[in-house]
Amino acid sequence: xxxxxxxxxxRRSVRCGGMRCLAPFVLVALASCGSPTPEPVKVDAEPVKPxxxxxxxxxxxxxxxxxxxxxPSLQVAPRVAFPLAGTVxxxxxxxxxxxxxxxxxxxxxxxxxxxxxxxxxxxxxxPATLEKLPKRWRKRVGTVDVLHTLDRQRADDPAFVAPLRxxxxxxxxxxxxxxxxxxYVDTRLHDALHDVLLRGGAVGGYxxxxxxxxxxxxxxxxxxxxxxxxxxxxxxxxxxxxFVVKDREPRLRKMVQRHPDHVGYGIDEDTALFIxxxxxxxxxxxxxxxxTAQGCTxxxxxxxxxxx
Length: 308
Description:
There is one protein chain. The protein has nine helices and 16 strands. By secondary structure, it is α/β, with parallel strands linked by helices. The strands form four sheets. An eight-stranded mixed beta sheet has the order 5-4-6-7-3-12-13-16. A four-stranded mixed beta sheet has the order 10-11-14-15. Strands 1-2 form a two-stranded antiparallel sheet. Strand 10 (about 235-240), helix 9 and strand 11 (about 265) form a beta-alpha-beta unit.
């Protein structure tokens, strides 16, 4: 009624975790029941990192042109050394005059055996060509034999190289020195050439046949030479041919820079270098350029000096 005291509302209870909680304290009870509510963790926003730049991949440096698979180590021992027991003739190519042929033939002797090796020339693969080769030599020496093969197994056959065991001299014809290298280096034929010199005989090379005479050779390329290994009959020297006509001094200079312990001899056409013992003589119509890592000098026809 009027003026009466209003009774409080009925107390209600709720169950929380098996306890009785008064309604006014429901929120408190709920907050205190079970696992406590973790306080929110304030997470600072990570600063945005700039994108990592992708490294620029540089293309590999080009390989030098002489970087070819390394040749196998020689099984033929480099037995030839200076002073030579015999004579080596390196001809620069071009005209092969009768006076050069006659002078070389003197080292063979009138009754001596000459072996011709024409393998550098592709024409040597033609039997008809091989039959004509001895003609210019027959009147100057006793016997002329011709040896040619591209088969390394045959070049390693004692029967094939037998003529070299009795030869007084050998003439190696022109073409591509790579053919000579691939067919004969590190075979019994290679070894037999050393024997010819060691017993006082003569070995001559014309053009590619001259280039193959040294231990380090220029296989091809100008001005960047591709190098390889040769017969090692002129150790410590590098022979180049057609020198002035084909402007090959740049490549020979690069070779002696790579091999400063070697001396380069650039022989022009119609010119030959006769090497006996430890001395050379320039013979022919043009010049020879003698190159070391310090530079090149000119050797005129008739010039003589110490080799290499």
